[in-house]
Amino acid sequence: MSAANRSAPSARALAVIETGAAVTPASSHPGSAFGTRWERVVPQFFAHQAAGTDGTLAATPRFHREPGASVTEQQSNARFALAVLFGINLMNFFDRQIAGALGEPIRVEFGLNDTQLGLVATVFTLVYAAVGVPLGRLTDNWLRTRLIAIGVTFWSVLTAASGLAWNYTSFLLTRIGVGIGEASCAPAGQSLIGDLYPPERRARAMAIFMLGLPFGLFAAYMLSGYIGQKWGWRTAFFVACLPGLILAVLALFIKEPPRGGVEQRTSLALPGSPFRSVMRIKTLWWIVLSGLLYNFNAYAVNVFQTPFLQRFHELGLRDANMISAFSLGLTGAIGLLLGGWLGDRLRTKRANGRVLIAAFALLFAAPCVFMALQQPKGGVVVFTILMGASSALSFAYYSTVYSAIQDVVAPNLRGTAVSLYFFAMYVLGASFGSTVMGALSDYFAHQAMVNAGATAMEDTFRASGLHSAMYVIPLLMLLCAGSLFGAARTVGADMRAMVTQTR
Asked: For residue 13, is pLDDT > 60?
């Protein structure tokens, strides 16, 4: 596929990030379908800064490219790859969030309580995390582009199958299938970006990749709310299939970069288990703790904010999803881009710059959520503004912390590190978020019913119960900020240790 055939707006948007990704001969990638036409390309890299002894980025002179080396093709591959990976990540979160956006009509049709509704996301994340570990190892040892293409195809088909579910169990099984497919996206996608972009530009590239999250949430809430209200909730699942299949084909046109190609050092073979090598990194433990706290909140909010707006503020499905689209989705893009930019700038001055940005962002996001929940019934404008501010702040987590993982882990272990990180934060965090929130909602709803002297559950009791349960979110945000301040104390030493594992 030529550059002219690609999306011009996407290419222009991505052109702001210069890269030095190299293209290796096809013969170095077993099973590559691209032949040997790239063997004429001399692997050269743009100038990028090397890690200094203090973990910051030290200036280095530009590399000179040999005559005939095609820098433009190298750049074009990186930009095209990032555009496709952004689209895939968008569909990743779009397909994942449809069930949350349509949670209330699904709950009503299948006769579920909030605990059962939350269990859908729990089962999804447990499978996602379990499958992600072996796929992470496969990421470090196989063609990442092919792995992504297979995963996207699988989850897109299973998303469409969710619309055919005839009861709660069948719906649960299709969502498990979606989780298996989506487990391929993050380790392989982040590993590719780590090898396409040098360290001082990586946070910005990661921010563009992670823009798929807020835009995916935005699209899921907006389209699912509109389609669900007009044609029924099942139709929304059918619509989501085709874009994923198209992106799966495009992923096969990404040319595999060499592992560690944009690093000034190459990874040394380490003795022992790769999992044990990764687990020796202290910063990664702090990041894992932050991830499970962050994802607990993220999944709880994504599953239950729209039902909360429908019950407590008495909005319709379309209006409730529209508010969620802006407050949970679109505003997050601001935090991702600004967080990536600030993270890259502060990273050149302080080794812990990226994690400090994330820590302070979460610290300031917590009171925004608390004040949003304090709004009275009908106060949806202020609620939307405050939740939007919280999302803008907290989404800086993705572009900064995900890049920090690349900073402390050797290139040949990054897929493994990301898969372990995802396993921990999904099993210990996300899997509990929606279920615990649902259980708390049911508990407080029952308490409201008892206090009112009623014998039957009513919508007003469900609204009160969910409102009370959501106050756990700002508390966990503060704990997440604390864990990131812990990571800020160890990241410099771990960055220096990573240098000793390369040559």
From this structure: no
